[in-house]
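Supplementary Methods. Inverse-folding protocol.

Structures were first reduced to a discrete structure-token string of length 509. This string, shown here, constituted the complete conditioning input.
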């Protein structure tokens, strides 16, 4: 009996286990069926369309959409039309938003390029992301020292040279191609995608703030997350960017005699505005980089141990950095100090002096009025309004000590805030997962020393979370001669965006 009973039980158990196993297999299949994301298929699609993507970039780079040059405005308008056209062809609901006009220094006004917005997908069960980018470029001329025609995309060893290739035309196209890949394969887009593409970024995003405020309750109302891909990696390793510095830009004008004077005839008798200006500019920062304006260093957020550790782990080579910029010595010799002073500490840069005799030759003039231009890259927890007061008060006091009869006027022209994101936010988790899938490595978490003022505006006005997801290379030469986009970054970046759309859809909120 015992024996039989045991046998029966064990048979029952066996049957039970088989059923359990079968259920587990079915269950697993269901999970896999739901979660199986056809990355291989999508990546293969991208690999098969590389030449189309390069051609699309060639057509965009060929448009001289230089926003700083009023004579190029028709090209810029055409660039916005091309952007809208492409989004329409993708089935997007496209709007070209009029943001008014711009006054030129000569008093004439010209229309600003329209901002292109688009919506692809409107499923209320899905998250909605808004991708921000720009299609205007910095000026470029072959004579500036380009090895190739800046507006004729040229492929040399897998590097696609052309103005605007990396900043920001290829990243914008990569986002469009990522969406197109889903569409072409008839795959459900994991999230609703909105685009907001502007044409004035390189000259300060004229008109965009107002537009964002105006669209807060319409275009932005259903946006969950904002993605910006207008920056680059720090090394050959992919990166996620979680902060940018702000910028306070100052003019310090020193005015003396009513006209320029001959230095032989008047030199030694007048107190020269240029001498005063050089004196006050020299009081801003010490030779070893210490900002001398009282209150500024005290306002900087403390550097935590956790942050120090993050910087320590970042892939960054000081020697490569030195050779890239052509200097033999830097302000700091170790990685953590160098990166932290690039990203999370303020600095003063003196940009130029207007009114100075600047042509070549040796004219002996005493300029009657000179304007020094300098800026302070800002970081949390500095506040532009406070910086304005600190700098103005300090320069006035330094100038006062000189007992000069000349007049000093300090004005702050730009007060762009820094931006900082929480790297523990789900958007960054999604970024890590997407990078791991495409590049089989962990991304570096980095900040930008430069300023992308629109990031903070997005955050302040819409209250949405933002991620900066760069695909540009560390040596792309943005704003410089021989700007390029690596084919590798462009193509693998497109795959990264494809993965990212999937990862964002998985965020539970
Ligand atoms: C671009 O450069 C290529 C190669 O140098 C040349 O063949 C082509 O004609 C150029 N295109 C234009 C539009 O200038
Ligand atoms: Zn840019």
């Amino acid at each position: 009996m015992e024996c039989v009973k045991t046998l029966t039980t064990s048979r029952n158990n066996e049957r039970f286990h088989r059923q359990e196993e079968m259920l587990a297999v079915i269950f697993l299949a269901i999970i896999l069926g739901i979660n199986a994301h056809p990355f291989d298929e999508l990546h293969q699609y991208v690999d098969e369309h590389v030449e189309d993507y390069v051609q699309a970039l060639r057509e965009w780079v060929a448009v001289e959409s230089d926003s700083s040059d009023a004579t190029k405005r028709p090209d810029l308008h055409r660039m916005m039309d091309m952007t809208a056209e492409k989004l329409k062809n993708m089935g997007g609901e496209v709007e070209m938003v009029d943001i008014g006009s711009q006054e030129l220094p000569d008093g004439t006004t010209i229309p600003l390029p329209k901002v292109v917005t688009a919506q692809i997908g409107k499923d209320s069960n899905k998250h909605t992301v808004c991708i921000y980018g720009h299609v205007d470029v910095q000026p470029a001329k072959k004579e500036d020292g380009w090895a190739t025609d800046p507006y004729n995309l040229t492929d040399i060893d897998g590097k696609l040279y052309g103005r605007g290739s990396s900043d920001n035309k290829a990243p914008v196209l990569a986002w469009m191609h990522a969406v197109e890949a889903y569409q072409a394969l008839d795959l459900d887009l994991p999230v609703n995608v909105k685009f907001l593409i502007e044409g004035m970024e390189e000259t300060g995003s004229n008109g965009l703030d107002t537009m964002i405020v105006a669209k807060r309750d319409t275009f932005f109302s259903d946006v969950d997350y904002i993605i910006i891909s207008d920056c680059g990696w720090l090394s050959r390793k992919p990166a996620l960017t979680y902060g940018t510095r702000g910028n306070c830009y100052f003019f310090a004008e020193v005015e003396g005699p009513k006209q320029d004077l001959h230095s032989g005839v008047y030199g030694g008798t007048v107190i020269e505005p240029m001498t005063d200006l050089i004196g006050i500019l020299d009081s801003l920062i010490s030779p070893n980089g210490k900002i001398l304006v009282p209150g500024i260093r005290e306002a900087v957020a403390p550097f935590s141990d956790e942050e120090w550790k993050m910087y320590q782990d970042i892939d960054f080579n000081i020697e490569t950095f030195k050779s890239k910029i052509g200097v033999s010595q830097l302000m700091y010799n170790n990685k953590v100090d160098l990166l932290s002073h690039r990203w999370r500490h303020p600095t003063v840069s003196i940009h130029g002096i207007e009114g100075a005799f600047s042509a070549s030759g040796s004219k002996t003039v005493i300029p009657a009025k000179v304007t020094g231009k300098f800026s302070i890259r800002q970081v949390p927890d500095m506040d532009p309004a406070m910086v304005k007061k600190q700098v103005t008060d300090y320069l006035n006091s330094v100038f006062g000590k000189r007992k000069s009869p000349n007049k000093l006027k300090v004005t702050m022209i730009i007060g762009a805030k820094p931006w900082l994101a929480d790297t523990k936010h789900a958007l960054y988790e999604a970024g890590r997962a997407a990078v791991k899938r495409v590049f089989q490595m962990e991304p570096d978490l980095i900040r930008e020393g430069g300023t992308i003022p629109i990031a903070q505006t997005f955050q302040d006005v819409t209250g949405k979370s933002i991620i900066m997801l760069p695909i540009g290379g560390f040596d792309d030469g943005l704003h410089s001669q021989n700007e390029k986009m690596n084919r590798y970054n462009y193509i693998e970046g497109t795959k990264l965006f494809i993965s990212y759309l999937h990862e964002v859809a998985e965020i539970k909120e």
